[in-house]
Amino acid sequence: MKCSRPATADSPKAGQSTRTKQASCEATLQSTKNHGPWSTDALILGLPPELVFDQGIGDLFVTRTAGAVLDDTLVGSMEFAVSSPYEVPVIVILGHTACGAVTGTVEALEKNAKSPKAPGEMIDFISEIAPAAREAEPVPDKSEHINNVVRMNTVAVAAALVERSEIIRAAVNAGRTEVIAAVYDLQTGLVDWNLTKNEKI
Asked: Which of 14, 40, 50, 97 is buried most, with the most CB atoms less than 10 Å from its CB?
């Protein structure tokens, strides 16, 4: 089996991936033995975080949920990532513009502000995102409003992760790990690291 890597143009924009990586067969096999130094929590419409951050397979410790919401298994995975032997120095809570889970939450609140509805277990992530959606100031442009909620929710999730997990909080307090909220822009390919309230989580 032959593994190839496509060539793409470099970009001078900060925060934008400079090339698209296709890991070699050897790198894929090696990834089963080693995890990399970062941990990201995101669902990016099928776009791998490895491409967003220009990393190879196995370079990132990745978990994904719709709306970047937390559950016990995900928090446990993050605790695993900050613990020995991995001890990742950065956890990135990565939201993205035009998030479907956030859009669904906003639309559910528009229909029933007090008690939003959703099919099956999807009500779980709507309940988690709803506080940020209720707090966001409404604006005429719905897409802008959705993206504002995405930013607020991403910051809230990052703060909630530190508050919820004693293990992660201890790693942050000891200076071993930093928790950062960021949002990936689907149109520009840029990552916004300068979210409101993002200076100290």
From this structure: 40
